[in-house]
Amino acid sequence: MILDLFAGPGGWSHALNVLGVRDVGLEWDAWACQTRVRAGQLTVRTDVAVYPTWPWLGRTTGLLASPPCQAWSMAGKRLGLVDQPLVHQAVADLAAGRDTRAGLLTACRDGRSLLAAEPMRYLHALNTVGEPEWIAMEEVPDVLPLWRQYAAILRSWGFSVWTGIIQAADYGIPQTRRRAILLASRVRVAEPPPPTHARVAEPQSLFGPGRARWVSMAQALGWGATDRPVPTVCAGGGPGGGPEPFPSGSRRALANARERGTWTPRADEVIRQSPREGPGRTARHGACETRAADAPDPAVADEAHRWSWSLRSNNQANATVRPLSEPAGTLFFGHRANECTWVATPTSSQTDGSGTPPAPEPIRITAREAGLLQTFPADYPWAGNKGQQFSQIGNAVPPLLAGHLLAPHLGVTLNPNDFTLAA
Length: 423
Fold this sequence. Notes:
By secondary structure, the protein is α/β, with parallel strands linked by helices. It contains 12 helices and 18 strands. Helix 3 runs parallel beside helix 6.
């Protein structure tokens, strides 16, 4: 059995399913549990901090843990850093068989901080029967000192352990998501998987197999066959560039821009007709009118203003803004200030400043889009309202990253193509 603590909506679990294995997840959030049930994952709805350890003794091969990160995350108040000495004390006490959690919890500034010590309660109990065979844990980077404390204890129990910071984009995830990782094993040398991608593509050489370029949002979402920031649109509802109501107009403009074949720029940047349309036929694609290349409309040529789309990671002044040709920044959800939105920016050709119509308004990312950027399948069965779905997605382990971390422990070969992105 593989035991998954704080299982969430199934990031680790989906990776295991792709690799041909199942786990049992412990999770408290009702909507995350509902998502797991819809995805066919074994789930116990419970509080990890109170669930007994004895049912797992003598039957657990692997242990997974991604404690809630809200107390430590840069997207929150980060009171976990204030509580860190208390969490270290709880880990040391639990490793020695002493449960001092109740007293330490009263001193914590954030009650969720102590959840990062919970895996040690399970590990101490399992270690009494020589289990588990391997361990994989994931958290935000600020938890790395705690993982190092875990590592020292696990080495004293006979584990090989590796801890460090992993960049998710280095493993084909379309997101520059940095995470603190702990990998441990009783039967093999614990080490991180070799990166498969890099910011700049590296050709194969005598020193290695080479690495592909980081996966862009456009690639992951299926919005273009190349890495160019292809999705560009004309503002407004017709050839005159008139405004459209939000959100339908902006969302339709973005939706049309997603279709790579629909927007085919000529050398003079006049948008011409897609090959999908019949010869000489005028086609209206939501945000601007397009005509066949051999029958240009001067009004369209004069008034068509182009916009490129980027993803803004939150509503704060220092928010990360990335064009579609790059991976997304780390996706944070759970608070309105962390709302991710698509924003339109003018292309370099739009510099004359004469009568430029207003850009399409920002558009909130959809759960499907956010899930794809976390490498969940396009049809993953998210449960709950939009806010509940976004919270699950932002807190989940990207399944493709989980697959890279788990495949060596399971003795299987990872095929990244098994982790379907855009459908």
